[in-house]
Amino acid sequence: MFNLFFIDLGRKVLSFIYFFGGLANLTGQTIYQTFKPPYKYGQIIEQSEKAGYESLPIVSVVALFIGFIFALQFGYFMQRIGSEMYIASLVALAIVRELGPVITALIVAGRVGAANTAELGSMQVTEQIDALETLATNPVKYLVVPRFVALGMMLPLLTLFADIVGIMGSYLICVLKMGITSSMYMNMTFSALLFKDLFTGLFKAWIFGMVIALVSCYEGFNVEGGAVGVGRATTRSVVISFLMILAADCFITALFYFIFP
Amino acid sequence: MIQIQRLSKKFNNNLVLNELSLDVQTGQTCVIIGRSGCGKSVLLKHIVGLLRPDSGKVLVEGREVASLKELELVALRSKISMVFQGGALFDSMNVSENVGFSLLEHTRLSPKEIFARAEESLSLVGLGGIGNLMPSELSGGMKKRVALARAICIKPEIILYDEPTTGVDPITADSINELIRSLHDKLKVTSLVVTHDMKSAYHIADKIAMMYKGRIISEGSPEQIQGTQDPVVHQFINGLSKGPITDAVDIFK
After folding, report:
1. Whole-prediction pTM
2. Which ipTM value was assigned to this complex?
3. Which chain B residues are Cβ-neighbours of A230 within 8 angstroms?
């Protein structure tokens, strides 16, 4: 019993090291292939459309609800202390610095990351990735780089969009239900936000985009065991992306806290 | 020429290739026969550099595949084509794009010229005019033939076939055999064919090699193989349920 526990623990530690080794290897290859010509503009645009444009409706809806909810929750407390006018500043900071990038990244990891893993996983089990190699085409260059570049570009743009929609949601609640004037709301929002707030939010989004692309492609490439394997890899891809997004968020927030206090 | 020298490969303690050696001369069609799961596809993947050997060497035109640099491997792969067991067509592309993929990626030909070359290859496998269909709209046999068209579109010097006639009707199987034979006769393409289909093997092979327990246990012309005294080869080529191969499995069970 005791032995089994250590054997199991050892296996988990080894698979953890193996995962990060594999991911680091894929990251290195992807960065190298990204800068090596020829550039696959057509595929980057196609992937950008899938990851960015097609995610707009769900990102809009979620960001709008987040804006509503935050305005109402902050409003509940701020009205008690007679400081409703600060709701705009609080919501703007919370959304731009934290909620915008993280919520957008979680949505994209669930929507685009899962699709990437399922697509690449199916290609792996039907030998399409082997076929690509035999046709003298590097699978990392052909499949990973367009997704990596597209998600790296699209996530900051989606985040910016989510920030605006979220603030609009909060604006609607504050102006229509809490009696704050429109000009007051806008003033409080823009006076609270600094360039570094927007920069840290978008920088985080860029990192999250690359994390989602790499984790989803790595899991897709390592699918084993047919349709069941594809399902398992897709679940793992979403769970690992979520964890890595939150871990990266924590790390980057701490880093910026100490660099730009 | 393909030379395989004492090639070994293990997956999770399962020795799939055990110091396997085989030579295939330029322009020759060599058929590898053996039971399912005995490592025939693994052998093909070593030749095209998809797998790296644990020990031993694979030499193509005198150059060791595992030691080639990225660009050298790309150059080698542009001379070798592989026809996969299930076709391995790209789901996201139509038939023409699949067949012309290599030309699109590695040549400066115009899309019109690539389409013409793809159509020419499709006509060779008897599927002219289906370029606009998607792989999901094709039957299993058609997928195999499209995969064959993709393989011959780049006019390779070596073609590796992984069970090209498995799962297709006898008429399609015969037309695939004829095509392999004509590529051999007209273009002097070197072919390595993995199959269970003995009728196909006798029809297309210059040489047949029997793989068993990770090694080549017998090789020779189709006539020599048909007249073999080796009980393992005799059982396999005659499709007998009783014999040394199945006895070994029964003892193991």
Report:
1. 0.89
2. 0.88
3. none
